[in-house]
Amino acid sequence: MKILEIVGTNAPKSYNRTLLAYMQKRYGSANKEISLLEINNIPLFNEAFFTQERPAVVQDLYDQVDTADGLIISTPEYDHAITAALKSVMEWLSCEKELMLQKPVMLVGTSLGVQGTSRAQDNLRQILNSPGLAAKVMAGNEFLLGLGKQKFNEKGQLIDQGTIAFLDECFDQFLELTQAN
């Protein structure tokens, strides 16, 4: 099984990247290849690119999403929404017909505040449900990690056992969704 993790920010330091790296180490195995995709080099979406040659980094995005059995997208929350960089990636993905159609997606996120990324995840869920994407977004088991700075140790490991147990439960549900697809 191939799982692609998408870091939903182009910021150089992010607890969302830390969360995905933790998940990659915890859940990756011989039968579960988990790779991490950075979006910081993907250009801002512009329709003019369709009259030109597609940027290689966008083609790489398409190829990685296409070959993945499922996606895990980690989003920070900026002003109650996803980042502009992640929105642009979603716009790129919506232009490749049926690339995301019924692709299993797990949403996760962490923030410095107490609410986690609840509004950003709602925003992203709405985008992923749009006709251009039509992904199969995992319902329930939303992983919203508030106070992210306090939840990781200096090695990038989650330190709260209840949080780890809930993440394990969410990931197991994601695997069931992906295998059923």
UniProtKB/TrEMBL annotation:
<dbReference type="InterPro" id="IPR050712">
    <property type="entry name" value="NAD(P)H-dep_reductase"/>
</dbReference>
<dbReference type="GO" id="GO:0016491">
    <property type="term" value="F:oxidoreductase activity"/>
</dbReference>
<feature type="domain" description="NADPH-dependent FMN reductase-like">
    <location>
        <begin position="1"/>
        <end position="147"/>
    </location>
</feature>
<dbReference type="InterPro" id="IPR005025">
    <property type="entry name" value="FMN_Rdtase-like_dom"/>
</dbReference>
<dbReference type="InterPro" id="IPR029039">
    <property type="entry name" value="Flavoprotein-like_sf"/>
</dbReference>
<protein>
    <submittedName>
        <fullName>NADPH-dependent FMN reductase</fullName>
        <ecNumber>1.-.-.-</ecNumber>
    </submittedName>
</protein>
<dbReference type="Pfam" id="PF03358">
    <property type="entry name" value="FMN_red"/>
</dbReference>
<keyword id="KW-0560">Oxidoreductase</keyword>
